[in-house]
């Protein structure tokens, strides 16, 4: 990185800037560009996102209730029904605490770099550059890894649906790779439209995210036979053969925690959000609360409709994801199960758009501060999306 991050020289002005806007009435005065300049950054990107559209992007990228279905295998294998329910609740409460703090920092300094800018502001002078540089690399790599992961999930989910519909189909690894590339290309092209069009699309995706929840939950709960509350909330499972149930729960916990990854989308899109100092913290908080509720409800519903744990887990060998077998056993219809899974597939594809958008802004911001190789090329806005992904 070229010396200390630019933001640090301006850190003293941040507090006075945010104090000018203490309530909603004065929020209309908020001059985002002036605020950004006070943080040492030159405004470049168009501000097309509002609260609704950025929540749509955050909710779709977070993929919460959809994610708990996809990631439930690890929790079921190591933890069982009770492990999934209580593990998610613990994870949700911890995530709320984290994002409450992030929201406070975002209100103070809403920049696309997010975490590494805040580290540059708050770390001791002697460690500021090193810690900010390390944080920048970790955050950039994390978002790039998440982009690949979502593409992989989408590809394998599509293959799982095909297996569900046509049991004679045998998925091949090369097919997974090709589908991943197709999903990635689609996401890059979708992000190549103007930010105004992207913002409108994300508002529609938010509606689909909420409607899809009920489209899956209602038939699942209505048609499936239900387990007893004691089976859902007290039965743990050690399918991995670990030395203790506690260790098994801890092994399965990261898989459950994955359903709430990526909630900081709004932070990295903040230079494209109107009234960012107010909207970004609200988007962070609303997103994690709403999606946490949806995911927790889906987790409980899924565990009540689980049936035989061993049978469901064995289905992952052919269907990739146990929830596909749960759908089939619940509605007792291949077509019905495929439609329910298709809703999740569509939302998973929509998720890649938000994840790729966020990953590109994070890489662009870090390049702006000279933190990456070829930063002078990556920082060019007119070729931003293609350069950071190609």
TrEMBL record:
The compartments listed are: Membrane
Q: Chloroplast as a keyword? A: no
What is the protein name for this chain? Amino acid permease/ SLC12A domain-containing protein
Tell me the Pfam families matching this sequence: AA_permease_2
MF annotations from Gene Ontology: transmembrane transporter activity
Membrane-crossing segments per the record: 44-63, 83-102, 130-153, 173-192, 204-224, 244-263, 283-306, 326-359
Keyword Membrane included in the entry's annotation: yes
Cite a GO CC annotation: membrane
Q: Keywords on this record?
A: Membrane, Transmembrane, Transmembrane helix, Transport
User: What's the protein's topology in the membrane?
Assistant: Multi-pass membrane protein
InterPro entries (UniProt xref): AA/rel_permease1 (IPR002293)
């Amino acid at each position: 990185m070229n010396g200390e991050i630019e933001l640090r020289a301006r850190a003293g002005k941040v507090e006075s800037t945010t104090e000018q806007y203490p309530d909603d009435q004065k929020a209309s005065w908020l001059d985002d560009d002036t605020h950004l300049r006070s943080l040492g950054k030159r405004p470049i990107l168009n501000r097309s996102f509002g609260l609704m559209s950025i929540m749509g992007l955050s909710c779709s990228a977070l993929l919460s209730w959809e994610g708990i279905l996809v990631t439930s295998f690890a929790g079921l294998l190591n933890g069982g029904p009770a492990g999934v329910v209580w593990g998610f609740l613990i994870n949700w409460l911890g995530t709320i605490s984290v994002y409450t703090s992030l929201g406070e920092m975002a209100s103070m300094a809403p920049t696309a770099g997010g975490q590494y800018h805040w580290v540059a502001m708050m770390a001791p002078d002697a460690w500021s550059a090193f810690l900010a540089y390390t944080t920048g690399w970790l955050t950039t790599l994390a978002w790039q890894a998440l982009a690949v992961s979502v593409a992989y999930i989408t590809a394998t989910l599509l293959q799982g649906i095909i297996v569900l519909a046509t049991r004679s189909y045998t998925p091949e690894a090369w097919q997974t790779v090709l589908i991943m590339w197709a999903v990635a290309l689609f996401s890059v092209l979708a992000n190549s439209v103007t930010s105004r069009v992207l913002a409108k699309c994300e508002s529609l995706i938010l509606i689909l995210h909420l409607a899809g929840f009920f489209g899956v939950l209602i038939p699942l709960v209505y048609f499936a036979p239900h387990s007893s509350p004691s089976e859902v909330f007290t039965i743990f499972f050690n399918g991995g053969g670990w030395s203790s149930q506690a260790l098994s729960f801890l092994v399965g916990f990261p898989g459950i925690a994955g359903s709430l990854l990526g909630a900081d989308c709004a932070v990295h899109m903040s230079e494209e959000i109107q009234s960012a100092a107010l909207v970004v913290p609200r988007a962070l908080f609303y997103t994690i609360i709403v999606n946490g509720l949806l995911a927790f409800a889906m987790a409980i519903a899924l565990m009540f409709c689980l049936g035989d744990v061993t049978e469901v887990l064995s289905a992952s060998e052919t269907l990739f994801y146990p929830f596909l077998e749960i759908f089939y056993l619940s509605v007792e219809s291949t077509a019905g199960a495929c439609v329910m899974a298709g809703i999740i597939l569509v939302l998973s594809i929509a998720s890649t758009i938000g994840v790729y958008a966020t990953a590109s802004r994070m890489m662009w911001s870090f390049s702006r501060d000279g933190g990456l190789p070829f930063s002078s090329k990556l920082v060019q806005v007119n070729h931003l999306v293609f350069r950071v992904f190609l």
